[in-house]
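FW: tagging you since you asked about this chain on Friday. Here's the raw sequence from the shared folder, copied in full. Didn't touch anything.
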Amino acid sequence: MKRDLEMDLLRSFVAVAAHRNFTRAAEAVGRTQSAVSLQIKRLEDIVEKRLFERSRQSVSITQTGEALLVYANRILAANDAALSHLQRPEAAGLVRIGAPDDYATFLIPLSCPPWQRSTRDCSSR
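HL: got it, structure written out here
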């Protein structure tokens, strides 16, 4: 049976690899230490190899873990890029605003910056 590498498991794996500590990795990903330990165990079950050598006072990444780390970083980067691209607003183009001078001078400059931040592909004149 083929199993997929879940994003949450990979995020926890990358955090443990970066921090070399389950407690600090758990803090970084917003989970408990025991949840991160279980996630790493699930990931090791999926790949059928140990990813970390654990002792009472240290955590070191195995050779298999180093190999997975390269792929995990690529997978997470691709996932984040895809979501960022797909979730951005679809509006694009130029918006022209006609207004009397007193509105154009005082009110429009106050209301445009929030709108422009939410629609990065649009501009106004």
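FW: The beta strands are 52-54, 59-61, 93-95, 122-124.
HL: agreed, and The first strand starts at residue 52 and ends at 54.
FW: great, closing this out.
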